[in-house]
Amino acid sequence: MLPDLDLVAEATRRQILALIAAERELCVCELVAALEDSQPGVSRHLALLREGGWLAARREGTFVYYRIARLPAWATMIVDALAAGGVPQATLRGARRRLVAFSGRPVRRGRTTA
Question: What is the CATH number assigned to the segment(s) 5-98?
Answer without folding.
Answer: 1.10.10.10
